[in-house]
Design a protein that fits this description.
The complex is a heterodimer. By secondary structure, chain A is an alpha+beta fold. Chain A has 15 helices and 18 strands. Chain A has helices at 3-6, 10-21, 38-44, 46-50, 68-80, 91-103, 118-127, 150-159, 180-189, 247-257, 264-302, 337-348, 370-387, 408-413, 451-462; strands spanning 84-88, 109-113, 130-134, 165-169, 176-177, 193-198, 221-224, 237-241, 306-307, 320-321, 325-329, 354-355, 359-363, 416-420, 433-436, 440-443, 466-468, 477-481. A seven-stranded mixed sheet of chain A has the order 1-8-7-6-4-2-3, sandwiched between helices. The radius of gyration of chain A is 23 Å and the shape is globular. Chain B is α/β, with parallel strands linked by helices. Chain B folds into two domains: 4-53, Spermidine Synthase, Chain: A, domain 2 (Roll); 58-285, Vaccinia Virus protein VP39 (Rossmann fold), CATH 3.40.50.150. In chain B, helix 7 (195-209) packs across helix 10 (273-285). The relative contact order of chain B is 0.14. Classes of the chains: A alpha+beta, B alpha/beta. The A-B interface holds A 298, 302, 347-349, 370-371, 374-375, 377-379, 381-382, 385-386 and B 137, 139-140, 142-143, 162, 164-165, 168-171, 173-174, 177, 210.
Chain lengths: 483, 286
């Protein structure tokens, strides 16, 4: 990485120059630097609305970058050790979908773990590719899905030698990392591309003593949520590609669905965050790791809670652990993760990232302060004192292997009918059912509904999980295929 | 030459005190610390631009936060003081010979150092052998304490800076846990008058009544604090702040005070109607 070059932020600088030109706007956006919408100015501030401008020559165009955006993308590629980088404004969802659609098309096979983010399944509905699932191993105690086991992947490749690509979640939401280098070697031996959903891994490119990043491991594409650990504005993201990938083709795929009015607030936030990470990321993430380690020590000292980390590493399905992730196992307290998640917000004014059936995840980043961590730890101490109960009857997280009957695309568009959810066992589901967050589908289009899945959905509902996906927002009915 | 210290009490109201000279200025890991000499209020301590105490009126705050619980609880041996690096609360506590241990938890070492050097009128007992000073986050310290104290005094800054954690439900709950079964917690409870302070006051009350079976508010008049009208919280597991007040016992101690009397003690718990209304609003939400 050329550190000197990283000191510049071309989009931000162009916006700054443009502001000083005092150009009279007879173009969109119609709020005209906020003058037409004083309430918006009051909310967001003058500086913010004055930077909300349209693509034009001095500011380049995200659909076809030739000047400052291209320069910013080159700097991002250099900072992340990628061949090419694409600035994305439709969230990491758009980065993931562009990545999948660049690699596979209708009828082609893609190998992936079932616990992928909904955006991946959405891409399969759009492009018609066929998913081939690798069973993600599940930790017996924590109940969380683990990384991709190399042995499992080998078996899947043997059965599916014609697959075009392999998609890996790395790190997972909980911080579990797979043996990316070996996965890449194996995939490339079989002429398959490796796509990495690296939504929770921006910091891996800059921190020290952290698991290997996708690009460093030789992966072909990676979707990186700059707005998560990278510090940019919500909805801004990066798509990184390696030398085996045709970047011009990827740009064409991106342009199929990406807006032609990309927000300069998002673009400049990517630019500034990339500069910050390149120049100061190492020490910033060392601080985050230290804070997370401190929090784990304090939480484990309370008794009853288990904040897990590197001790889980097993050389395969937990090849490495991202220690910035603060995940805590809650079931020994007799509380579901989702219950702790709700208690923390409703009773203690603390919002964490998510809670599932047996764990919570607090997201630590470059903006955290020690005194806020003290609050989180003390709140857990108090929840333990006031709410802990016997754990009998608590359902544990478990991996329910999907029964794929037809492709997601076929199921999504096929003739269907709506049934009360409790009567759907045995039918093929035509829509998604997810707990949000983390947004990993319980059911995806084309999968057969089982009683076990229905029990899981009922329990998650009862514990207060936010369920999303189906047309019926109350999740009392489900669309199934007419067979 | 005119040299003034001004503190904004709201965005539209400020208090200005003429300064004779600046005695100390330093920046710690947590805050900026300034000490001035002023003609009207003597020496004053300012943290991050907020006036913490003046030589002239600190007695009101320190007497009221200390003697009220001490006149109610019949047998105080172990006391925890959180915040209060200036030493004012400790000074008042040290006047009671039956207290065996005073644990002082202050997050900012430099406040204690500056107070010892420049504020001898409050810091005078910080080296008393009964006083144990812990430089730590109060929230962290109390997390590990269980059934250990007779009295906890929370002398926090405002809830808009490093003191924020001392206004949280997890903090008050931890205090409850750290107290003996007849323990009392007294806390700095903000002011009911200006909107932002009043919201903080209501919030604190809400968080306290969620953790303690009984809590009452009392008041004092402190000229240099925003609006001059200041509140304290009295939260208790057993003793009632008025019914268990033993006037004869306290008066027999013959402690000289400038603000506190056992008669004023009773009066301090009778609040203005609008303040009662604000507290009722919070209690109704329960």
């Amino acid at each position: 990485m050329d550190l000197k070059a990283q000191e510049s932020a071309p989009i931000y600088e162009a916006l700054d120059r443009f502001g000083k030109m005092r150009v009279v706007p007879f173009d969109v956006p119609g709020h005209k630097r906020g003058r037409g919408n004083p309430e918006l100015v009051k909310l967001l501030g003058e500086k913010c609305v004055s930077m909300d401008v349209n693509s034009m020559k001095p500011l380049d165009n995200l659909c076809h970058p030739v000047s400052v955006i291209r320069d910013a993308e080159k700097l991002a590629a250099d900072a992340f050790g990628a061949e090419n980088a694409f600035l994305m404004v439709g969230g990491t969802t758009s980065a993931v979908q562009s990545m999948v659609m660049s690699a596979v098309q209708a009828g082609q096979k893609i190998i992936l773990p079932r616990n992928v983010h909904r955006s991946v399944m959405g891409a399969l509905v759009l492009c018609g590719a066929v998913p081939v699932y690798v069973n993600p191993e599940c930790d017996a105690k924590l109940g969380i899905p683990l990384g991709m086991s190399l042995a499992q992947l080998k078996r899947t490749i043997e059965c599916t030698p014609d697959a075009k690509a392999i998609l890996v979640n790395n790190p997972t939401y909980y911080g579990i990392c797979s043996d990316l280098r070996s996965i890449v070697r194996l995939a490339h031996e079989h002429n398959m591309l490796v796509l990495v959903d690296e939504a929770h891994g921006t910091h891996l490119y800059f921190g020290e003593n952290l698991p290997v990043s996708a690009m460093a491991a030789g992966a072909d594409m990676a979707a990186v949520s700059m707005h998560k650990s990278g510090g940019s504005l919500t909805q801004s993201s990066l798509l990184l590609t390696g030398p085996r990938v045709n970047a011009d083709h990827v740009r064409q795929i991106i342009n199929l669905t990406q807006t032609t009015s990309a927000s300069y607030l998002l673009l400049s936030s990517l630019d500034i965050s990339r500069r910050n990470l390149a120049l100061r990321g190492r020490e910033a993430f060392a601080g985050v790791c230290e804070l997370a380690d401190y929090a784990r020590g304090e939480i484990n000292d309370l008794g009853g809670w288990y904040a897990f980390a590197r001790e889980l590493i097993n050389g395969d399905s937990i090849f490495d652990f991202d220690s910035t992730k603060l995940s805590v196992y809650t079931l020994d307290m007799g509380l579901a993760g989702i219950e702790v998640y709700d208690l923390l917000r409703d009773e203690y004014d603390i919002q964490i990232e998510f809670g599932d059936l047996g764990n919570i995840l607090a997201y630590l980043s470059i903006g955290d302060r020690k005194r806020d961590v003290e609050r989180l730890v003390s709140a857990l101490s108090e929840i333990g004192r006031l709410y802990a109960k016997d754990r009998t009857g608590m359902m544990e997280n478990e991996y329910i292997p999907p029964v794929v009957a037809v492709t997601p695309q076929f199921a999504f568009y096929a003739p269907k009918r709506s049934l009360p959810i409790e009567e759907t066992a045995g039918y093929i589901c035509s829509e998604f059912v997810m707990c949000y967050p983390p947004g990993i589908p319980i059911l995806a289009p084309g999968e057969r509904v089982t009683t076990k899945i229905l029990e899981y959905i009922a329990y998650a509902k009862e514990k207060g999980c936010q369920l999303t996906g189906p047309e019926d927002a109350a999740i009392e009915r489900l669309n199934v295929l007419v067979e | 030459m005119e040299f003034w210290f001004s503190e904004k009490h709201t965005k539209d109201v400020k208090l200005s005190i003429r300064v004779d000279k600046q005695v100390y200025s330093g920046k710690s890991d947590y805050q900026r610390i300034d000490i001035f000499d002023t003609p009207a209020f003597g020496r004053i301590l300012v943290l991050d631009g907020y006036l913490m105490l003046t030589e002239k009126d600190e007695f009101i705050y320190h007497e009221m936060i200390t003697h009220i619980p001490m006149a109610v609880h019949p047998n105080v041996k172990d006391v925890l003081v959180i915040g209060a690096g200036d030493g004012g609360v400790v000074r008042e506590l040290c006047r009671y010979p039956e207290i065996e241990r005073i644990d002082l938890v202050e997050i900012d070492e430099e406040v204690i150092a500056a107070s010892k050097q420049y504020l001898p009128f409050t810091a005078c007992e910080l080296d008393n052998e009964r006083v144990h000073i812990y430089i730590q986050d109060g929230l962290k310290f109390i997390r590990r304490k269980k059934d250990e104290y007779d009295l906890i005094i929370v002398d926090s800054t405002d809830p808009f800076g490093p003191g924020e954690g001392l206004f949280s439900r997890e903090f008050y709950g931890s205090c409850y846990k750290a107290l003996h079964e007849d323990g009392i917690m007294v806390n700095q409870h903000e002011s009911p008058f200006y909107e932002q302070d009043a919201l903080a006051m209501q919030r604190a009350h809400k968080r306290i009544i969620e953790s303690f079976p009984f809590s009452r508010i009392y008041q004092a008049h402190i000229p240099t604090y925003p609006s001059g009208h200041w509140l304290f919280g009295f939260s208790t597991k057993k003793y009632h702040p008025l019914r268990d007040l033993n006037e004869a016992r306290w008066n027999a101690r013959k402690l000289a005070t400038k603000y506190y009397t056992t008669t004023l003690h009773r009066g301090a718990f009778y609040l203005p109607a609008y303040v009662e209304e604000m507290l009722k609003d919070v209690e109704k939400e329960r």
